[in-house]
Write a structure and sequence with these properties.
elongated; single chain; five-stranded antiparallel beta sheet; 14 helices; alpha+beta; 12 strands; four-stranded antiparallel beta sheet
Amino acid sequence: MGQIRDKGNVWLVLQERPRVAATGKNDYSHVASIVQPDATSRRVFLGDVMDILEGFWQQVALVWKAGVFGVSLGPILAAVLVFFLFSVTRGFFTRVILKAMRRLADRTSTRIDNMFVDALEKPVQFAFLVLGLYVAVQVVSGSVDTGDWVHSLIRVLIIFTIFWALFLMVEPFSYLIDRVLAQLGTPLTAQETLHAFAVKILKVLIVILGIAAVLQEWGFNVAAVLGGLGLAGMAFALGAKDMIANLFGGTMIFMNKLFDRGDWIQTSHLEGVVEEIGLIASRVRQFDKALVTVPNSLLTNEPIINYSKMTNRRIYWKVGVEYRTTQDQLRTIVHQIRDHIHDTDAFETDPERVSTLVFVDEFADSSINIMIYCFTKTTNWAEWLDVKQDFAFKIKTIVEGAGSGFAFPSQSVYVEKWPMGEAEPFPLQADAEGTASG
């Protein structure tokens, strides 16, 4: 049996010929011989090869045409290539676009427009991907119906990109609010509080509008849904009345400027420094460093003492001197205390702003009381304590220099008659009197 192997223009023919081995049995060895093919045999062989290749190519064409889910592989690969190119080049084009925008922003004297450009960097990159997806869909849609849901998905992505950009632009926009508040003369602490409040409100509003736009795109009638939620909204409002009350309480705190962040406040429940004013609740750091979260409705429904709003800080004392103090000594003490207050720069003595009073006030049980009513210029607690301490030292010097002294509570008991009669003499004393008489 011969086998033919093509070696270019020569066929190598392997023939099997029997031979007798030492055992006497036939053994086959392969004997190769060179055969020169003729032209007819060569044409027959090449024709068979071409038929095989043509059949294989027909199978490849069928697979290519069948593709995936009835879509030819050609448009699919083209769409994938387009999206890949957009994904690879988005960084380059984003840098080009943002560079041009920054060049325009640098021409202005403010930094707010630069902040807007920085906020748009990631949305612009994502928008370039959405553009690549749209172009890829257009490539595929020429060969197959892509369906409305694909175009709806692209529109949802566009909506997401727009509202994402608006969400990120809230922070730069809030600095415009700060500028307006500064021109209106709003204190810095109030600016920070209003800044945080405005940012939260705007971000929540943008998220709600974005969700409504997406629902509208997917075919939901947002107006009808909101109208149908009327009864459910009433039930929700009844269940969430406390949250609504706290929300209105937070609004009242901002509108009426009851307190700002960093203010020292006191209510019937707490006393401390305000760390945060939120939409629903506020946080107050007590002086023992405990953090208290208070619902805003509770803060607006009870009296609040805001010590940080003090224009001056008061000193109100009653100094008691001894009853042996003479009238001249009292006059000297009162006049010297009054002169010290007016001559010391730490005290506020403008009668248009405060009242300064130093008078002999009353005859108490154990002392003659001198009332001292004055105000310091500082409202800082530590500085006020320092001023008050120096004032106490000065009063002691004035009272003692006038020859008087400070009284303290005392009580004198006078016994006219012992309730049990006269006391018996001590026995030793009685014996001594008897001996003397004898």
